[in-house]
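Protocol step 4 of 6: structure prediction from sequence.
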Amino acid sequence: MAERCKLCSNLVIDEDEPRGTGLHGAPYVSYLEKSHKNGCRFCGYLLQIQHLFGTFVRWNFIGESYSGYCDRPTFESLKISNPTCPTSRGQRILVRPFQVWHKSLEIYREHSGLPSPFGTPIAVGERADSASTWAFLQDCLTWCATHASCAREGPLRLPTRLLHLKASAGTASLVETKPGDAMPYVALSHCWGGDLPVKLTTANYKSFQRGLPRGSLPNTFQDAATVTLRFGIAHIWIDALCIIQDDPSDWVKEAAQMADVYSHAHFTISAASSKDGSISFLTRQRTMPLVLGLEDDTGLGSPPEQLLARKRLETGIHSYGKAFDATLDPTDLRGWIMQEKVLSRRTMIFSSEEVQWECRNARVCECSGVTSWASDTDRQMHGRATQEPRMASHGPASLETWRSSPEQRHESWYTLVSDYTLRSLTKETDKLVAFSGMASKFSSCDGSAYYAGIWESSLPAGLCWYVYQHHRVQTLLPQSYIAPSFSWASVKGNVDTLPAASGDPTRAAHDLSVTVALATADPHGTVHSGSITLTGVLVAGEMRYNASWAGVRVNRKLGNAGAYTVSFKGAVESMSNQESPQFYHDCELIPRGGADANGEATAARSVEASPTSWGPSTVYLLPLCAARSTASGSGGMYGLVLGRRSGGGSFERLGLFPFGFDFGGLQGSVDTSAHQERIRGFFAAGTPQVVVIE
């Protein structure tokens, strides 16, 4: 065995080295260069892999905002560690730029079963239609058949229409299902990417029934048919080919049945890497590993074998979340696909560089093999307790969480809301209907009334949402009416909720009643109007906007600097400007004259911000829900900032206002008598009354 380098230890992981820990800190590139010149070929291997990292964006979080900058393809130091995602077949080396968590490389070697300090690799084929991929998926299906939680719930409910695939004839024909039919089917989840050249309409309905050559379908659909037939199933549901696209009534009826379509499918195919129907996900060429050199370090005198390096995959179950868009597949950016992922019992995800699998019991991938949730390896793969990645997966396992306690159920719901509101929709008016399948399924677990995205069982805490500042969000108010202002669906921003408020039973507002006027027969779909009526203390205040102020800005539009500030009359007169709490506005706001009871100007929602500074405008604080910081135990309140609507009889929501906390942000840090005094001051300055928010 070769003498180990004191800098890189010849990239050997000792058996007693704890997983996930660094081997030798963060060696600088200059040290690696010197070591390589002195004869260490392993340090030379580390120098070779620099270009594999590529250029990427790193995000700096500063207070309530963050900014992005590009790192260069080179790096100054490396972190060499045991893998954060080891496999059941052995360990690998992970290398990443120091203090950069979302970019890493695997170093491993190919061999024929001989002992190796680099572990046994699990190869990923050059394309998704490789033999190894088909074998992986068959293993997943066989394994999933043993999961009780993945079994279909209740009798099979077929979609209205399916495509019948005839392998011998190479055709796909539209069939209308009827009571008593019981054939298994597959569902496709995909990005439209604009208009499709082939879709079902009233004009071509008969020709679809007679049958189409599969070769005439878009490439994504052809691939889906190939996968379906590969696993012995003859029927598939594809939205574009099974819903009459120019018949609004058919579209509304079928959209309301999405929960059944995906939850009753034998499995769902996610064309995750295809941005539109023209792109094949089966024949996509994957990135092959970099050959670093030939090695024989087994000590057994075996022939030298290749030492390889490949990018640590970042998509799907390896994704680092919404802060790093480079880790997302096209399907992760689309609103409609969110519920298709959650409602499916099992999903084959054809991601950019591998195929992944999700079901209600597991999330696994080609590069790591099939590993049970209950195993030690799974906990090491995800770096957390076994149940946590299931709850956070936003996949089929979310439904298991909905059957747990009300607190966990609603926390899971609003986690999904946060993910969903970061995604885009071609038609903004689809905001509620594209989420209705999940609402329908959630309703079967929760049983409470649903009001345009808000559950009666979560009130008033369910109103404590705020718009999160994210670089992908630009316009924050829809051009069309989507939902009443108390609902997160009324804005286009990425919405987060306050977990500290969601589980606290103490209520400042009470006697709540909600009404919505549905636009269709779907109780979880689009609405014409809605209002919430509650009894609470209303505190008058003033809002100003100054284009030169620094503060919370949820809209990152170029040129929209400045901030909105709110002060409340007579509430806490001793509060200095530095202590003023942050106001988290829902969207751009403008002054509107003559709206309050005295004819004074108030603030109102707007698609575009006023280009100039303005104020004062009368607004109102409605203390809503008591909360306690989960981090520090500090107490406080959350309230809604309201503006009077034209006519003065009702209000619209303008944003969220935390008070009584340490005023550095949404989370409190110190529970002091001064904070409680401020809370009492707000209530003393207000007037109890019935408030209607539309």
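Step 5 (inspection) to follow. Residues 9-121+286-314 form one domain.
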